[in-house]
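Researcher: Last one for today. Full complex below.
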Amino acid sequence: MNSTFLPEALLRELGVLEWSYTEEAVPRSLEHFQAWTAAGLHGPLGYLGDYRRSLRQDIRKVFPEFRSALVFLFSYQETKKYLLDHGQHEVAAYTLGFGGADYHPELRARLRAIVKVIPHDKVFLSVDVPPILERDLAYRAGLGWFGKNSMLINRQHGSYFLIGSILLDRVLPLSTKELDVDHCGQCTACADACPTSAIDVEKRTLIAQRCISTYTIEITKETTPPSGIENSRGEIFGCDICQDVCPWNRKPLDRVTAELKLYPRYAFLREWFYEWPREKLRDYIQSQTNRGFLKLISGSVFERPGRLGWLKNLRR
Ligand code: B12
Ligand code: SF4
Ligand code: SF4
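Model: Here's the assembly. Have a good evening.
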């Protein structure tokens, strides 16, 4: 039933690598999340530790009508392959993987295209922002396991994808895949490669305040960078190191064509990141007003740290 429930051609057009179904509202890894935040490992990510922490206990706290979820893995593998082939590590691949546009509206639009072909009354779309543990939701749907780098890894597709879900107020005539089991084994490549020692391999967890991704995306003001960042590959926005070394990401990239396709609106990002010397980019951003910079970059994920956050990232 699952294989014929959604049109294959539509899924392909929308960049869906795999999808699945679950009726479980409560995260399986809730205890881990609670211990993680209680230990302060979320660092400066206040939204994980404040009143929204308890909302993550049960999807029904966010969408009371919840009865089931369709969970989708949206690929950015082609972009990743292109950037790896060209040795370009300045920005994480997901940032350019959707034409350079912010993946939030982009993926919500793709989810809406799927909503059109399924039976529903009320739906709730989840892409990143709602207080829902999305990796766990994908895990409950049988779409992968939690790697030692915290990523949701899929045996066939690796981890270069984003998760988007349609929450429904009804159950569907679909089956759930079996929960996946750990396939990391004795490997510790991600923790070994992390320049800032942000992965606690024993506890299989991330120390967010040490993560380059936190520093370059979430910190908007001048702040001391995590120690070890000088040993990175020059990341200025996001970080893919712990995914790039993961053996589960090798085969999936062999199957795709390297491609960096930017919407015309964001074509300038190629110049910014790959053609201009870093000092030129810094001087250019410096010469903008805060508001002017946001206007330039609006509609992309690069808006998030604002002009001052960017100047901080480029000062290293
Ligand atoms: C906050 C956040 C961050 C923070 C903190 C990351 C973190 N690991 O907590 C920062 C800014 C560092 C970050 C970075 C990145 N993020 Co982020 N982030 C989120 C966000 C908004 C919330 C995550 C969260 O709740 N963290 C709390 C921790 C405890 O939960 P978790 O990360 O989901 O980890 C779960 C499992 O790994 C598992 N788990 C982990 N360890 C263990 C150990 C045991 C013993 C057990 C039982 C379970 C377990 O339990 C956790 C809770 O369910 C989600 C979107 C969402 N709404 O879920 C995206 C999300 C997790 N991020 C995503 C991405 C792509 C990234 C980056 C790759 C971006 C980049 N290239 O820079 C990096 C990866 C860094 C990393 N190695 O995790 C994707 C992940 C897709 C995937 N394949 O897993 C998500 C799901 C967004 C999306 N909609 O696609 N992110
Ligand atoms: S994203 Fe980068 S800094 Fe963060 S845990 Fe992975 S390798 Fe370390
Ligand atoms: S690099 Fe190794 S330990 Fe880390 S997530 Fe991948 S398989 Fe697991």
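The chain is about 35% helix and 10% strand. Residues 291 and 307 are 8 Å apart (CA to CA).
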